[in-house]
Structure formats: C-alpha cells, structure tokens
Amino acid sequence: MEERVDKFLYAMRIYKTRSIAADACKNGRVTMNGVQLKPSRTLQCGDVFSVRKNPITYTYRVLRLSANRLSAKLVPEYLEDLTTADQLELLELARLAGKQGRDRGTGRPTKKDRRDIETFFSDDYNPLFDDFDDDDE
Q1: Is residue 104 in a domain?
Q2: pTM higher than 0.90
Q3: Cα distance between residue 26 and residue 9, in whole Å
C-alpha cells in the first residue's frame, strides 16, 4: 500500500491542510535521505522522512498508512517520532526565548499604558494639584 506525501502529512496532523502540506513539499521542507520530496511522491511503511519546521527538523518513521485524517490519539499507531534530543532542546530554547516578553516602554503600549497616556493628556489632569485637598479654602 502506498500514500501520497501531502495526503499523509495532512492525515497525520503534521500540517493543518493538504495544500499547506503540498506547499511545504514544494518549498523543500520535507525530505527523505537528503532528497526533497514532491507532494505526489508516495510513501510506504518503514520509510523515514524529515519535516523542517523552524527552528527544528522533525524526523518520522511510517508505521502504517492512512489516507483519512486521524484523531490525535491514533497518530502514534501510524507514525513514530524519531526526532533527536538536540532538536527538541532547540525547540525548548525557542519556547523559553519567546517567554522573555518585551521591556517596558518598547513596542506598542498595553491597555493600561494607553489609559495612563489618555489621563495624562486630558484637559482636567494636573499632577501638581493632585496631592492637595480642595477643602483648605
């Protein structure tokens, strides 16, 4: 039994749509033994292929073939993940780098920043007289 690469990538939930899977093949992100795969190339059981999704390259072995999209629970029965530990470490580093956030004052203002700015530029705002009571008159 054989299955098209783009159809298989879609069925195994590696890509959300078949057209995105086909585009990935056309752009050279899907390889087997260092050779770029075309979307129409057929896969067989036991084939090992790589999918490059920045920042890492995933490596998979085909255990069984299916043309229909599977639930996420069934994917491990059809596909074995052979991705190396150093590639997974790159993914974790990228995840941690993304959590750094932005320094205060850089980028777009937050909602709180915007409210503070609006208050500052309003006509009735005067920071010099905020600390005094009006009852002293």
Answers
A1: no
A2: no
A3: 13
